[in-house]
Amino acid sequence: MDLRTMTFVVVGFTFVIYIAIAIKARAGTTAEFYVAGKGVHPVLNGMATGADWMSAASFISMAGLIAFKGYDASVYLMGWTGGYVLLAMLLAPYLRKYGKFTVPEFIGDRFYSKSARGVAVLCLIVASLTYVIGQMKGVGVAFSRFLEVPFETGVYVGMAIVFVYAVLGGMKGITYTQIAQYCVLIFAYTVPAVFISMQLTGNPIPQLGLGGSLENGVALLDKLDQICIDLGFTAYTTQKGSTLNMFLLTLSLMIGTAGLPHVIARFFTVPRVRDARSSAGWALVFIAILYTTAPGVGAMARLNLMQTIQTGAIGTADGNLKYSDAPAWFSNWEKTGLLKFEDKNGDGRIQYYGSGLDDKAAGFGWKGNEMVKVDRDMMVLANPEIARLPNWVIALVAAGGIAAALSTAAGLLLAISSSISHDLLKGIFIPNISESNELMAGRISMAGAILVAGLLGLHPPGFAAQVVALAFGLAASSIFPALMMGIFNRSMNKAGAISGMLAGLFSTLIYIFWFKGWFFVQGTAMAPDDAAHWLLGISPGSFGAIGALINFVVAYVVSKMTPPPPAKIQEMVDHIRVPSGSSGPVSDH
Known about the structure:
The chain has helices at about 5-25, 30-35, 40-55, 55-70, 75-100, 105-110, 115-145, 150-200, 205-210, 220-230, 245-255, 260-265, 275-290, 295-310, 330-335, 360-365, 380-385, 390-430, 435-455, 465-490, 495-520, 545-560, 565-575; strands at about 340, 370-375. The protein is mainly alpha-helical.
């Protein structure tokens, strides 16, 4: 069976499963739509959380970044997993004990203000929409290659699939669909990794294969370092960026993880407080399977790519692959626009090298790096093709990448939908709205969110993981500080919380727009990712940690200048933190 037919069969089969689950688990009440009726087992919730968490950025883009950034990309592994420790210890059990539906609802009640709830909705929508752009990019990439349709068509198809199972099922349908999607994505990620690790090192465990040796006895990472240096790139295992920026990016990703509403909402779906902590632990186990595999996938993909193109000694007549002899995967990915080759010196061969080889390259008669585009988001999906694995493995990877993107997109869209229908309509504008009308409003707002997210996903401002990092920065700078102060600072008042959220959100938005939007739109000579122009070398994706600090400082100063919260609010904070009752069911109040 040819690859396209195989992909249609595998991807189509998974779609049938997702839609069937959504129809069977269709939400009939607002409690089922928002929090799955609070009846999800912690192990299953951990699996659903893993799927919700392991987005297109984790499945498609993270290993691609690791492949090209090497050591520097370890911040994504540390930040995205470390944030779950904060979430499990500092937020999840307390928010579950409070027992409401959404993060803005907690913030509105804790800070005794509809304005605070409205600001929290604004922060949630900005962060979630930014995040979902990355998912739509991932869906478009997967569809464009394996179903051989334009990138834009892939995004539209993804929108339609999410519409069916997210709008119908709500949190209940999404939860059980995400369990199925986790099984698909983790199988799709690990199977090719096992194949490729066996090919290169003889070890079927990719985590061990990364530290193993090739057939000739040379360590895999040593070989990769040497090839990178020979081709003019920095050694793969060498730090390239500034330590300050790496630290801030890691911190931003960590506290952004703990502040993402669609992830926090997963802990509202379990029956008891202690189940919230247990869910976080199980989620870490399920996530670790992919995250410990990603470094091996990235390194092996980079090695296979460079060895495919560089077939002999540097500078020799037969050292570079002839374009006419390029394998089928090369031309297939060229069709997507994610891989581009330009024969600058007309010799019919592919010169692929870094700036460190510029002087020598000129002596060879090379006119520049002819691989003018290698999109990081293609590496995981192309990896099985580069390694010449069977078609069923390649089709499985496509299904996994789509599952990862769709599962997270559904969770994000539900967070946006519930903030509009439950927090804005019921919580602020129409308090007496009936349950059936609220449910209908939730479905309508989700449909609108899908449309907006899809249109924005057609023109993302970067690789999937880079876009997601921006979303984490926005959540870190706005929502996380408000939740932390709401739980652990009984004297924090509404004026301080509102001022802090707005200061953190807009300072981070301005910084991101300045480098990711303004200079790009204006077409100036300064590139959006030009580190030389960043403030103290801090990238837009790392600024979330600075925004969080601004949030904390502004909130503290304003709270000291304004009246303290009412006594009943301070008592509520004390009650949330009291561990009594955590061993049994907690009533929703």
